[in-house]
Every structure is written in C-alpha cells, then in structure tokens.
Write a structure and sequence with these properties.
Blueprint: H1 2-14, H2 45-48, H3 60-70, H4 72-91, E1 98-104, E2 117-125, H5 126-130, H6 132-193, H7 198-235, H8 257-265, H9 267-270, H10 272-293, E3 299-307, E4 313-321, H11 330-394, H12 400-435
Antiparallel strand pairs: 1-2, 2-3, 3-4
C-alpha cells in the first residue's frame, strides 16, 4: 500500500506545475519615447519593404508601419490571439485520471485482532476521450478565428492611418489656400482705406466682415487638423503631446477596375473578417457535434483495491454509466443549434454588406471622378485668367478690385478641388481596405 502511494505521488511530481509570478499593474501612463519599427515583422508587402526613418519626417507608408506596430487595440487583439492559442493547447491535453483512498480506522479494537480497513481506487473518465477530437477541432478553429480577426483589425488600422494622414495634409493645404485668400482681402482693404468717401467706407466695412469670416474659416481648418492629429496620435499609441512631422503627399493609386471586379466575386476567400466568421462557424459546428455525441451515456472505468478490518483484501473494478433519461443533453444540443444558426445568418449578412459597401464606393467614385474632371478644366481656365490678370495688374492696366476678384475665384476653385480630391483619396483608401489593397501576406 505504501509503495503504491509513493508511486502515485512520484508520478504526480513528474508532471510539473506552473509557478506564479506577480505582474503588477502600472501606476502611470507609458508612451514610446522613440519611434521604432521592425519592418521585417510586418506582414504587409507594401510595408515590410519600406524603409522606416523618422529623422526626415513620416510619409504615409511610415505612418501605417508605425500604426501596425504600436496601435493599442492591435496589442490587445494580439493578446486575444495568444489566449486562443492557449485554449487550443488546453483542449488538446488528455484528461487526468482520478485517485481515491479512504481508510477506516477501527475504534475500541483489541490489539492485534483488527486491521485498518481501506478503499483504494483509480478511475478514468473515458467519456471525455470520446469528445476530445471535437474539442480540439473547435479550439483550433477558434484560434484561426482570432488570428483572422487580428488580421482584419490590422487592415482597418492601416486604412485609418492612411485616412488620417490624407485628412491632415488636406487640412494643411486648405489652410494655406485660406491664408492666401485672406491676404487678398487684407490687401484690398488697406488700399480702399486710403481712399476717402462714404461708398469706399461701406466697402471697407464689408471687407472687414469678410476678413473676420475668413479668420474663422482658418481657425476652424486648423482646429480640425489638430483634432485629426490627436486621433492619429491615439491610433499610433503616442502621447497627446507628440508632434509628428508628416511629409509627402498622400498618393493612393487608383485601383484597377478588373481586379476590383474579381475581388468582389471572391470576397469570402480573402476578406479576413469573412474568413474569421467562417472559422467561428466551423468551431460552432464542432461544438454542436460534441453536444450531440454527449447525448450517449458517459462511461467511467476504475480499478479498486480494498481491505476490511479482518485483514482480508479485495481486488475489483468499477463501471460508471450515466443514464440519459431526463436530460440527455437535449438542452445543450438546442443551444448549440441556435448558436450555429445565428452565426450562419451573421455570415450571410456580413457577406451582403461587404459586397454592397464596395459597390457603393465604386458608384461614388464615378461621380467624384467626373466632378474632379470638371473642376480641373475650370481651374485651368481660372489659372490662365489669373496669370493674365496678375500681369495686367503689375502693368497698371487692371485695378486691385478686379484682380483680387479673379484671383479669389482661382483660389476658391483650388479649395473646391482640394475638397473633392480629399474625398477621392478617402474613397480609394476605403476601397483598398475593403478589398485588400494592402493585404497581409498569406500564411
């Protein structure tokens, strides 16, 4: 008996146990002190091949690289993927056997006439083995779902970083145009203030009001740019006091129409969110099959050794069998079936929405492209007029009021074109995000 107990304790000691390590929570905010990115760790072809060097400013690609590396939400998503991996590992472990020992020490016994009775048992739940393969398959599918959800979130972060970069650069350009328009108004006001007369005074008042309105527009444009910079800092996991030097133009190539059409048809094969839902549906299907299999009687088998107080020992075995009379796991089967139905409907709804979003952007893009073409033609005409007016104004053949009106029309046209151009860039970024224009390399 003692040898058997020693053997069991020795076997248990060989299994190994995890040790506890304290992980205290931080007490102060912590932000990166240096902008660093390991490009080789990025699985986007367009990002991993780009050189990251913040010393000369950050272009759109470098901002996207920093976002993928340092976004706080992505760090949590990677933790979730790690949890899913641990759950898959746990699901693959075999159930441990059970051991029981129950001594019955006699009371008021005569010396040498009674022995300590005992019951010793070793049992194993074979029912857990019957469903192990389904548990493992479900956990592996959940792990794929977590990895694909992380990938889809990375797509979204790349797209959001590009969008904020484009907006900030557009705001800066618009602010520059507004300042030029303000200088025109101020110049005209100074000229008119030097000319006496009631009519001139009224015009000066109107120009002063226009200057105030222009100042408000400049302040609003600067405020929106500051708001977008704050959103970009948060997306990159940087301190609110960070002052990023953004350089370069937000150039996004126009996606190929044939390639977009091909990807619309094949959205379910490469969109990470759809593939994640598919993996989740697969995991739920395994759980349903496990619940159905669990309707059958659970079997537990054990070996028994016992002894009575007369010193006689017995060997035997135990067999435990559940009787599915009242419950039969029917409730769990119904729950798993309803859950699978919901996941099925969710996948269909997401697939429909994905296709509709892409087609809506394509329709909007046609309208914006046509609007931009008209603005380009009109702006080219206004630029020619403005150049001619500037030359005539320098030569004294055109007064300031006429020149400033023509110049104002040109600057207004540039503002309008800047706004439409920003909308087109945003549409392109959204389209590339939805159809995988910055796909992560396949695993």
């Amino acid at each position: 008996m003692k040898n058997l107990l020693k053997a069991i304790l020795f076997a248990a000691s060989l299994s190994g146990c995890a040790s506890y390590r304290k992980l205290p929570l931080p007490t102060t905010p912590a932000f990166p002190q240096r902008l660093e990115v390991d490009a080789s760790s990025l699985h986007f072809p367009g990002l991993s091949s780009h050189r990251f060097d913040p010393s000369d400013g950050l272009d759109m690609t470098e901002v996207a690289m920093l976002a993928v590396s340092n976004n706080p939400a992505l760090k949590l998503a990677r933790d979730d993927a790690g949890i899913a991996g641990a759950q898959a590992f746990a699901a693959g472990l075999l159930p441990d056997p059970g051991f029981g020992y129950s001594p019955q020490i006699p009371q008021n016994a005569l010396p040498g006439e009674n022995f300590t009775a005992f019951d010793l048992g070793l049992n194993y739940d074979f029912g857990a083995l019957m469903t192990r393969s389904l548990r493992v398959a479900a956990a592996k599918a959940d792990r794929r779902k977590a990895d694909l959800s992380l990938l889809w979130q990375e797509w979204q972060v790349v797209g959001e970083s590009r969008l904020l970069f484009a907006r900030i650069r557009a705001r800066e350009k618009e602010t520059g145009i507004l300042k030029m328009r303000r200088e025109l108004l101020a110049q005209r006001q100074r000229r008119e203030e030097s000319v006496p007369g009631d009519l001139t005074s009224a015009v000066v008042t109107m120009d002063a009001n226009a200057l105030q309105a222009m100042d408000r527009q400049i302040e609003e444009s600067a405020r929106l740019a500051l708001k977008d910079r704050g959103a970009l800092d948060a997306l990159l996991g940087l301190s609110p006091e960070a002052r990023l030097d953004l350089v370069g133009e937000p150039e996004i190539p126009d996606p190929d129409g044939a390639e977009i059409a091909r990807r619309i048809v094949a959205l379910s094969r490469f969109r990470p969110d759809l593939r994640a839902l598919e993996a989740g549906y697969e995991a739920q299907d395994f759980r349903l099959r496990k619940a159905i299999l669990a309707q059958f009687p659970a079997i537990g088998v054990g070996l028994i050794r016992s002894g009575d107080n007369t010193g006689i020992h017995y060997n035997g075995f135990s067999l435990n069998l559940s009787l599915p009379i009242f419950n039969g796991n029917r409730g769990n089967v119904a729950i798993e079936q309803a859950t699978r139905k919901r996941l099925h409907d969710e996948y269909q709804a997401r697939l429909n929405a994905a296709s509709a979003e892409v087609r809506q952007i394509l329709a909007d893009r046609k309208l914006l492209d046509g609007e931009l073409s008209g603005l380009d033609a009109n702006l080219a005409r206004l630029s020619r007029l403005s150049s001619a007016a500037e030359e005539a104004y320098r030569e004294g053949n055109l007064d300031l009021a006429a020149y400033s009106a023509i110049r104002e029309a040109e600057l207004s046209g540039k503002s309008e074109r800047n706004a439409v151009r920003e909308s087109i860039l945003e549409e392109r970024i959204a389209l590339l995000t939805l159809v995988g224009g910055q796909n992560r390399e396949s695993k």
